[in-house]
TrEMBL record:
Protein name: GmrSD restriction endonucleases C-terminal domain-containing protein
Record's keyword annotation contains Zinc-finger: no
Any coiled-coil regions, as ranges: none
InterPro entries named among the record's database cross-references: GmrSD_C
């Protein structure tokens, strides 16, 4: 029995690894991605305008300082809204939680049919925002940042990959799927520009390198 479970798990892992990389230019996928992703040229222009500064981590960050998963539309909170937006064939119950659907994670190309396997990633992590200027914000602005569905800030991705990313910036972590690096960099830059957050020198260098893949 244990061998059977182990074999089943191995076959599932192989199936995920065998999935082809998603076509990030397909009209269907583009309809299911966050709004506001700039073109590579616009991203470079925005990047050049970001304030360059060394992040200040004084140990005061707390995730609860960014009230998240607030109500967005009807019974849908921000997490449920993104699951519905970014999935295929998504059906939801009265509480807006998905009862059916599939999700392709742009970070690694893996496809999921079980909502708990999907995390909603903050493109610019909450702690990175805190040490890049958000420590001076009001709670209302931090709430808006943590629940922003009008910019490329929230993404439905593989849970384990999201946990691997943690609160790291692009000089410390990049998505496993190299074909997504261009979009990832453009999205990160767009969010930092929208919220006037600073970027470190290493972060800027990494973002420029990622834009070189466009």
């Amino acid at each position: 029995m244990k061998f059977s479970y182990a074999l089943s798990g191995l076959l599932s892992a192989v199936a995920v690894l065998a999935l082809p990389a998603p076509d990030l230019t397909s009209p269907d996928l583009l309809k299911r991605t966050p709004p506001g992703i700039p073109s590579p040229s616009s991203a470079r222009r925005l990047l050049s305008g970001l304030k360059k500064a060394t992040p200040i981590d004084d140990g005061t960050y707390d995730r609860d300082l960014f009230p998240h998963w607030g109500s967005i539309e009807g019974n849908c909170n921000a997490r449920e809204y993104v699951l519905r937006r970014d999935g295929t064939g998504v059906e939801v119950g009265n509480n807006c939680y998905p009862t059916a659907g599939s999700w392709t994670s742009p970070y690694d190309g893996a496809r999921h049919v079980d909502p708990p396997d999907v995390d909603i990633d903050h493109m610019v992590p909450l702690k990175n925002a805190w040490i890049s200027g958000a420590s001076a914000w009001t709670t209302g602005r931090r709430r808006a940042f943590a629940n922003d569905v009008d910019s490329p800030q929230l993404w439905a991705v593989t849970g384990s990959v999201n946990r691997s990313k943690g609160d790291r910036s692009p000089d410390e972590w990049t998505p496993p799927l190299r074909s997504f690096h261009c979009t990832y960099a453009a999205s990160w830059i767009a969010v930092k520009d929208k919220y006037a957050l600073s970027a470190s020198s290493a972060e800027v260098d990494a973002l420029n390198a990622m834009l070189d893949t466009c």
